[in-house]
Amino acid sequence: xxxNNNKPKKYDAVLGGNNPPPLDGLVLGGIAGVKRRFDKANxxxxxxxxxxxxxxxxxxxxxxxxxxxxxxxxxxxxxxxDLLWNNLEDKEKQELTEYLPKLLQEDILRWxxxxxxxxxxxxxxxxxxxSKLDLNGADLSNINFCGANLSxxxxxxxNLNSSDLSNANLSNANLIKxxxxxxxxxxANLSNANLSNANLxxxxxxDFYEVNIEGTNFKGVTATRRRRRKSGSTKYQEILWxxxxxxxxxxxxx
Length: 254
Description:
By secondary structure, this protein is an alpha/beta fold. It is built from eight helices and five strands; from the N terminus they run αααααααβββββα. The protein has two domains: 28-121, no CATH class; 122-254, E3 ubiquitin-protein ligase SopA (Pectate Lyase C-like, 3 Solenoid). Helix 1 packs antiparallel against helix 2 (44-51) and helix 2 packs parallel to helix 4.
């Protein structure tokens, strides 16, 4: 009986047809092969499935996923980001946050879902330009916005709880029903911003000493006033802030 020398052995690499490679296997042709299959894919769902192959190629795969984040939009960019985020150490994750402003702009619902799972991770949007963007309903809590440009942005019903807005430009911004509780506003520009029915609970009123509130709408703003009890404990009293109240406070401080 003749031996079939053409028959592949157990560990030989073979060219397949249209069948996908094993889930834990490497694609013939390396990362270049993955890219070719990605480019030829007929649907976004199929393309996303090939992204998962990238991490098997370490740095080459990571570099490719970063390219996808930069050059793609929506679900494709988010899928590439999530793959990297879930496989990086905290130090490396901090470097990855530079792509978050782009992702936030593209899909707020996806952002809110990601933010819910990573709420304790401190994000730095220092000096980032968000001018004129639609960020309605976005979860922007516990973020460093120092010096950021949020002028004319739609932040209505956004959650900015505990964020640092010091030196931020919020001129002409829409902050209707926004949650601004516990935010820092030192030297922020709120000129002509609309804060109707916004929540400013536990915001330090002394921050307003250097805040530009020219033309700002504070109608229906909810805030708190801190009062000392005789026992020495602190009591917070809920109040409605009117612009005249703030202007009088600022005037008294000058």
